[in-house]
Protein backbone atom coordinates (compact mmCIF):
# COMPACT_ATOMS: atom_id res chain seq x y z
CA UNK A 1 0.00 0.00 0.00
CA UNK A 2 1.45 3.37 -1.06
CA UNK A 3 1.76 6.41 1.22
CA UNK A 4 -1.03 8.14 -0.71
CA UNK A 5 -3.33 5.15 -0.30
CA UNK A 6 -2.56 4.98 3.41
CA UNK A 7 -3.53 8.61 3.92
CA UNK A 8 -6.79 8.04 2.01
CA UNK A 9 -7.46 5.12 4.36
CA UNK A 10 -7.52 7.39 7.43
CA UNK A 11 -11.07 8.51 8.34
CA UNK A 12 -11.41 12.27 8.71
CA UNK A 13 -13.13 13.08 12.01
CA UNK A 14 -13.81 15.90 14.43
CA UNK A 15 -14.35 13.72 17.49
CA UNK A 16 -13.92 15.65 20.77
CA UNK A 17 -10.56 14.87 22.34
CA UNK A 18 -10.16 13.42 25.81
CA UNK A 19 -9.11 15.58 28.73
CA UNK A 20 -5.30 15.74 29.13
CA UNK A 21 -3.98 13.19 31.65
CA UNK A 22 -2.88 15.72 34.27
CA UNK A 23 -6.43 17.05 34.60
CA UNK A 24 -7.89 13.68 35.59
CA UNK A 25 -5.68 12.41 38.38
CA UNK A 26 -6.77 14.38 41.47
CA UNK A 27 -9.79 13.64 43.65
CA UNK A 28 -11.31 10.63 45.43
CA UNK A 29 -11.07 8.42 42.34
CA UNK A 30 -7.27 8.46 42.65
CA UNK A 31 -7.54 6.87 46.11
CA UNK A 32 -9.50 3.80 44.94
CA UNK A 33 -7.30 0.73 45.59
CA UNK A 34 -8.73 -1.28 42.68
CA UNK A 35 -6.81 -0.03 39.62
CA UNK A 36 -9.45 -1.18 37.13
CA UNK A 37 -12.26 0.57 39.03
CA UNK A 38 -10.17 3.73 39.26
CA UNK A 39 -9.50 3.85 35.53
CA UNK A 40 -13.09 3.01 34.61
CA UNK A 41 -14.39 5.78 36.86
CA UNK A 42 -12.17 8.27 35.06
CA UNK A 43 -13.25 6.96 31.67
CA UNK A 44 -16.93 7.38 32.52
CA UNK A 45 -16.35 11.01 33.51
CA UNK A 46 -14.41 11.63 30.31
CA UNK A 47 -17.07 10.05 28.08
CA UNK A 48 -19.81 12.03 29.79
CA UNK A 49 -17.94 15.27 29.14
CA UNK A 50 -17.20 14.51 25.50
CA UNK A 51 -20.71 13.24 24.78
CA UNK A 52 -22.00 16.66 25.79
CA UNK A 53 -19.96 18.13 22.94
CA UNK A 54 -20.96 15.44 20.43
CA UNK A 55 -24.13 13.62 21.58
CA UNK A 56 -24.60 9.90 21.01
CA UNK A 57 -27.10 10.46 18.20
CA UNK A 58 -24.63 12.62 16.31
CA UNK A 59 -21.61 10.35 16.72
CA UNK A 60 -23.75 7.32 15.79
CA UNK A 61 -24.78 8.98 12.53
CA UNK A 62 -21.19 9.93 11.74
CA UNK A 63 -19.92 6.41 12.43
CA UNK A 64 -22.53 4.90 10.12
CA UNK A 65 -21.38 7.21 7.34
CA UNK A 66 -17.78 5.98 7.44
CA UNK A 67 -17.01 4.27 4.13
CA UNK A 68 -13.39 3.34 4.84
CA UNK A 69 -13.31 -0.48 5.02
CA UNK A 70 -11.85 -2.13 8.08
CA UNK A 71 -8.66 -4.12 7.61
CA UNK A 72 -9.63 -7.46 9.10
CA UNK A 73 -7.96 -7.76 12.48
CA UNK A 74 -9.40 -11.19 13.19
CA UNK A 75 -8.63 -12.39 9.68
CA UNK A 76 -4.96 -11.53 10.14
CA UNK A 77 -4.84 -13.78 13.21
CA UNK A 78 -6.82 -16.51 11.46
CA UNK A 79 -4.14 -16.52 8.78
CA UNK A 80 -1.46 -17.08 11.41
CA UNK A 81 -3.51 -19.95 12.83
CA UNK A 82 -3.78 -21.52 9.38
CA UNK A 83 0.00 -21.27 9.03
CA UNK A 84 0.46 -22.76 12.53
CA UNK A 85 2.28 -19.65 13.69
CA UNK A 86 1.80 -17.21 16.55
CA UNK A 87 1.08 -13.69 15.32
CA UNK A 88 2.43 -10.61 17.05
CA UNK A 89 0.06 -7.81 18.01
CA UNK A 90 2.66 -5.15 18.73
CA UNK A 91 1.55 -2.35 21.02
CA UNK A 92 2.30 1.34 20.95
CA UNK A 93 1.91 3.20 24.25
CA UNK A 94 3.79 5.90 26.08
CA UNK A 95 3.25 4.70 29.65
CA UNK A 96 1.47 2.22 31.90
CA UNK A 97 0.27 2.25 35.54
CA UNK A 98 2.76 -0.47 36.47
CA UNK A 99 5.83 0.80 34.61
CA UNK A 100 5.36 4.56 34.39
CA UNK A 101 6.72 6.40 31.35
CA UNK A 102 8.15 3.90 28.88
CA UNK A 103 9.25 6.28 26.13
CA UNK A 104 9.69 10.01 26.85
CA UNK A 105 10.35 10.47 23.11
CA UNK A 106 7.10 8.70 22.18
CA UNK A 107 6.35 8.65 18.44
CA UNK A 108 3.50 6.19 17.81
CA UNK A 109 3.75 6.39 14.02
CA UNK A 110 7.48 5.64 13.92
CA UNK A 111 7.09 2.78 16.40
CA UNK A 112 4.23 1.26 14.39
CA UNK A 113 6.28 1.45 11.20
CA UNK A 114 9.15 -0.36 12.89
CA UNK A 115 6.75 -3.07 14.09
CA UNK A 116 5.33 -3.55 10.61
CA UNK A 117 8.81 -3.82 9.13
CA UNK A 118 9.67 -6.39 11.81
CA UNK A 119 6.85 -8.72 10.78
CA UNK A 120 4.05 -7.93 13.23
CA UNK A 121 0.56 -9.11 12.24
CA UNK A 122 -1.42 -6.29 13.87
CA UNK A 123 -0.90 -3.11 15.87
CA UNK A 124 -2.45 -2.26 19.23
CA UNK A 125 -2.82 1.45 19.98
CA UNK A 126 -3.44 2.42 23.60
CA UNK A 127 -5.66 5.49 23.66
CA UNK A 128 -6.49 5.82 27.38
CA UNK A 129 -5.04 9.07 28.68
CA UNK A 130 -5.02 9.17 32.47
CA UNK A 131 -2.76 6.19 33.18
CA UNK A 132 -1.30 5.29 29.79
CA UNK A 133 -0.81 8.83 28.40
CA UNK A 134 -2.51 7.75 25.19
CA UNK A 135 -4.56 9.82 22.77
CA UNK A 136 -7.35 8.96 20.37
CA UNK A 137 -5.35 10.87 17.75
CA UNK A 138 -2.68 8.18 17.91
CA UNK A 139 -4.86 5.81 15.88
CA UNK A 140 -4.94 8.21 12.94
CA UNK A 141 -1.19 8.78 13.24
CA UNK A 142 -0.53 5.06 13.10
CA UNK A 143 -3.06 4.32 10.37
CA UNK A 144 -1.54 7.01 8.14
CA UNK A 145 1.82 5.22 7.96
CA UNK A 146 1.00 1.56 8.63
CA UNK A 147 -1.18 -0.86 6.66
CA UNK A 148 -1.66 -3.42 9.46
CA UNK A 149 -5.02 -3.89 11.23
CA UNK A 150 -5.36 -1.74 14.35
CA UNK A 151 -6.78 -2.67 17.75
CA UNK A 152 -8.03 0.22 19.83
CA UNK A 153 -6.82 -0.68 23.33
CA UNK A 154 -8.85 1.23 25.87
CA UNK A 155 -11.48 0.81 28.56
CA UNK A 156 -14.61 0.73 26.42
CA UNK A 157 -17.69 1.00 28.61
CA UNK A 158 -20.19 2.99 26.60
CA UNK A 159 -21.81 2.87 23.13
CA UNK A 160 -20.40 6.36 22.50
CA UNK A 161 -16.88 4.91 22.58
CA UNK A 162 -17.75 2.13 20.13
CA UNK A 163 -18.97 4.61 17.53
CA UNK A 164 -15.98 6.83 18.27
CA UNK A 165 -13.66 3.88 17.60
CA UNK A 166 -15.06 3.44 14.08
CA UNK A 167 -14.68 7.15 13.41
CA UNK A 168 -11.08 7.06 14.61
CA UNK A 169 -10.16 4.23 12.25
CA UNK A 170 -10.00 1.23 14.59
CA UNK A 171 -10.42 -2.20 13.01
CA UNK A 172 -11.00 -3.95 16.33
CA UNK A 173 -11.87 -2.89 19.87
CA UNK A 174 -11.07 -4.42 23.24
CA UNK A 175 -13.86 -5.26 25.68
CA UNK A 176 -12.74 -6.16 29.20
CA UNK A 177 -15.09 -8.67 30.78
CA UNK A 178 -14.02 -7.63 34.30
CA UNK A 179 -15.36 -4.14 33.61
CA UNK A 180 -18.67 -5.12 32.01
CA UNK A 181 -21.79 -7.10 32.78
CA UNK A 182 -22.81 -9.82 30.33
CA UNK A 183 -25.56 -7.58 28.98
CA UNK A 184 -23.22 -4.62 28.54
CA UNK A 185 -20.61 -6.76 26.80
CA UNK A 186 -23.20 -8.25 24.44
CA UNK A 187 -24.61 -4.81 23.57
CA UNK A 188 -21.20 -3.26 22.87
CA UNK A 189 -20.14 -6.33 20.91
CA UNK A 190 -23.23 -6.10 18.73
CA UNK A 191 -22.65 -2.41 18.07
CA UNK A 192 -19.05 -3.02 17.04
CA UNK A 193 -19.94 -5.90 14.76
CA UNK A 194 -22.64 -3.74 13.16
CA UNK A 195 -19.92 -1.22 12.32
CA UNK A 196 -17.71 -3.95 10.76
CA UNK A 197 -15.20 -3.94 13.62
CA UNK A 198 -13.87 -7.08 15.27
CA UNK A 199 -13.97 -7.43 19.05
CA UNK A 200 -11.32 -8.92 21.32
CA UNK A 201 -12.97 -10.06 24.56
CA UNK A 202 -10.44 -9.91 27.39
CA UNK A 203 -10.55 -12.32 30.35
CA UNK A 204 -8.32 -13.05 33.32
CA UNK A 205 -9.90 -16.06 35.03
CA UNK A 206 -12.11 -19.05 34.26
CA UNK A 207 -15.32 -17.30 35.29
CA UNK A 208 -14.67 -14.43 32.88
CA UNK A 209 -13.65 -16.91 30.18
CA UNK A 210 -16.95 -18.79 30.45
CA UNK A 211 -18.84 -15.50 30.25
CA UNK A 212 -16.90 -14.51 27.12
CA UNK A 213 -17.38 -17.88 25.44
CA UNK A 214 -21.14 -17.43 25.76
CA UNK A 215 -20.94 -14.33 23.54
CA UNK A 216 -20.79 -14.17 19.76
CA UNK A 217 -17.11 -13.52 19.08
CA UNK A 218 -14.22 -15.67 17.96
CA UNK A 219 -11.46 -13.55 19.53
CA UNK A 220 -10.56 -14.28 23.15
CA UNK A 221 -7.77 -12.32 24.85
CA UNK A 222 -6.27 -13.85 27.98
CA UNK A 223 -4.67 -11.09 30.03
CA UNK A 224 -1.80 -12.40 32.13
CA UNK A 225 -1.97 -9.17 34.14
CA UNK A 226 -4.55 -8.83 36.88
CA UNK A 227 -5.99 -5.38 36.20
CA UNK A 228 -7.04 -4.97 39.81
CA UNK A 229 -3.56 -5.54 41.27
CA UNK A 230 -1.33 -5.19 38.15
CA UNK A 231 0.47 -8.45 38.97
CA UNK A 232 1.48 -10.46 35.89
CA UNK A 233 1.77 -14.23 35.49
CA UNK A 234 2.05 -16.01 32.13
CA UNK A 235 0.67 -19.13 33.80
CA UNK A 236 -2.76 -17.50 33.41
CA UNK A 237 -2.62 -18.27 29.69
CA UNK A 238 -1.18 -21.71 30.34
CA UNK A 239 -4.21 -22.54 32.50
CA UNK A 240 -6.99 -20.90 30.49
CA UNK A 241 -6.01 -21.37 26.83
CA UNK A 242 -6.63 -25.15 26.84
CA UNK A 243 -10.22 -24.43 27.97
CA UNK A 244 -11.00 -22.42 24.83
CA UNK A 245 -12.75 -24.35 22.01
CA UNK A 246 -10.64 -24.80 18.84
CA UNK A 247 -13.00 -22.64 16.77
CA UNK A 248 -11.96 -19.55 18.77
CA UNK A 249 -8.73 -17.58 18.43
CA UNK A 250 -6.73 -17.03 21.61
CA UNK A 251 -4.48 -14.02 22.18
CA UNK A 252 -2.11 -14.05 25.15
CA UNK A 253 -1.68 -10.54 26.56
CA UNK A 254 1.00 -9.11 28.87
CA UNK A 255 4.07 -10.71 30.38
CA UNK A 256 5.42 -12.02 27.05
CA UNK A 257 9.12 -11.17 27.06
CA UNK A 258 11.04 -13.84 25.13
CA UNK A 259 10.74 -16.10 22.11
CA UNK A 260 10.45 -18.94 24.62
CA UNK A 261 7.34 -17.30 26.09
CA UNK A 262 5.83 -17.08 22.61
CA UNK A 263 6.46 -20.78 22.03
CA UNK A 264 5.00 -21.71 25.42
CA UNK A 265 1.68 -19.96 24.90
CA UNK A 266 1.57 -21.18 21.32
CA UNK A 267 1.84 -24.77 22.50
CA UNK A 268 -1.33 -24.42 24.58
CA UNK A 269 -3.35 -22.83 21.79
CA UNK A 270 -2.54 -19.13 21.50
CA UNK A 271 -2.66 -17.84 17.93
CA UNK A 272 -1.41 -14.41 18.88
CA UNK A 273 0.51 -12.52 21.55
CA UNK A 274 -0.07 -8.90 22.47
CA UNK A 275 3.22 -7.35 23.53
CA UNK A 276 4.11 -3.78 24.35
CA UNK A 277 6.17 -3.07 27.45
CA UNK A 278 9.03 -5.48 26.77
CA UNK A 279 9.42 -4.07 23.24
CA UNK A 280 9.08 -0.42 24.19
CA UNK A 281 11.76 -0.66 26.88
CA UNK A 282 14.31 -1.41 24.15
CA UNK A 283 16.18 1.30 22.24
CA UNK A 284 14.73 0.00 18.96
CA UNK A 285 11.29 -1.61 19.42
CA UNK A 286 11.37 -2.93 15.86
CA UNK A 287 14.56 -4.89 16.45
CA UNK A 288 13.10 -6.17 19.71
CA UNK A 289 10.01 -7.35 17.81
CA UNK A 290 12.16 -9.18 15.25
CA UNK A 291 14.04 -10.87 18.08
CA UNK A 292 10.78 -11.90 19.76
CA UNK A 293 9.55 -13.42 16.50
CA UNK A 294 12.80 -15.32 16.02
CA UNK A 295 13.99 -13.32 13.02
CA UNK A 296 17.25 -12.33 14.75
UniProtKB/TrEMBL annotation:
Catalysed transformations (reactions): 1-(2-carboxyphenylamino)-1-deoxy-D-ribulose 5-phosphate + H(+) = (1S,2R)-1-C-(indol-3-yl)glycerol 3-phosphate + CO2 + H2O
GO process annotations (BP): L-tryptophan biosynthetic process
Region (Disordered): 1-25
PROSITE patterns listed in its UniProt record: IGPS
Keywords: Amino-acid biosynthesis, Aromatic amino acid biosynthesis, Decarboxylase, Lyase, Tryptophan biosynthesis
Pathway membership: Amino-acid biosynthesis; L-tryptophan biosynthesis; L-tryptophan from chorismate: step 4/5
CDD domains xrefs: IGPS
Class in the EC hierarchy, top level: lyase
One Gene Ontology MF term: indole-3-glycerol-phosphate synthase activity
Entry EC number(s): 4.1.1.48
Domain Indole-3-glycerol phosphate synthase: 36-291
Key word Lipid metabolism present: no
Xref: Gene3D superfamilies: Aldolase class I (3.20.20.70)
Family (UniProt): Belongs to the TrpC family.
Name by which UniProt lists this protein: Indole-3-glycerol phosphate synthase
Organism of provenance: Tanticharoenia sakaeratensis NBRC 103193
Amino acid sequence: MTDAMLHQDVPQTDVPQATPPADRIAGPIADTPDVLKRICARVRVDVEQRSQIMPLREITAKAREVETPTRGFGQALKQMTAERQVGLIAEVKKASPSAGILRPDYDPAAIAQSYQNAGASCISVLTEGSCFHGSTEDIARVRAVCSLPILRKDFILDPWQVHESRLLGADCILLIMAALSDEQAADLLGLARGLDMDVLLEVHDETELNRALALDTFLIGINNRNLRTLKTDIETTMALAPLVPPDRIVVSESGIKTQGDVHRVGEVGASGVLVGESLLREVDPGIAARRLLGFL
